[in-house]
Specification:
It is built from two helices and eight strands. The protein is of the alpha+beta class. It is globular and about 35 Å long.
Length: 134
């Protein structure tokens, strides 16, 4: 008898826990911030394997040698990235140069276009950073 009651309670708890799980999706129609999806830079610095991701008003990723993070505000097709910081590891000169240039371009971001598999960030000087799903 107690086994049946315990099984019933455990099954109820499991169902209640599963019903509260919410799946996050990218609403590309409204160009909202993608959640917890990492994208890899494909049009520059391919050997550096640079990535970008967004979550809860923040931007983060791998910049060639170090991890970086900062604030990101997306409104429609406009983006403002500020307060970018990174870890302070040293690495090969070519990757360090790519990292420095990438972080500079990222700080100049003004426009963003997103779809299911791609993000294009355009800087104030019309440089494009094209990222694809990793």
């Amino acid at each position: 008898m107690y086994k049946k009651i315990a099984t019933f309670i455990a099954a109820g708890a499991l169902l209640a826990g599963c019903s509260s799980v919410e799946e996050k999706k990218v609403d590309v129609a409204e160009n909202k911030e993608p959640q917890k999806q990492e994208y890899q830079l494909t049009n520059k610095y391919q050997d550096a394997e640079i990535t970008i991701a967004f979550e809860d008003g923040k931007v983060y990723g791998f910049s060639g040698v170090n991890r970086y993070f900062g604030g990101a505000e997306i409104e429609g097709n406009n983006i403002n990235i500020d307060g970018v910081a990174s870890t302070m590891m040293a690495g090969p000169k070519d990757k360090m140069n790519a990292e420095m240039e990438y972080l500079q371009l990222l700080s100049e971001a003004q426009k963003i276009q997103m779809d299911e598999n791609k993000i294009i960030i355009t800087t104030k000087n019309n440089d494009e950073l094209i990222f694809e799903v990793k």
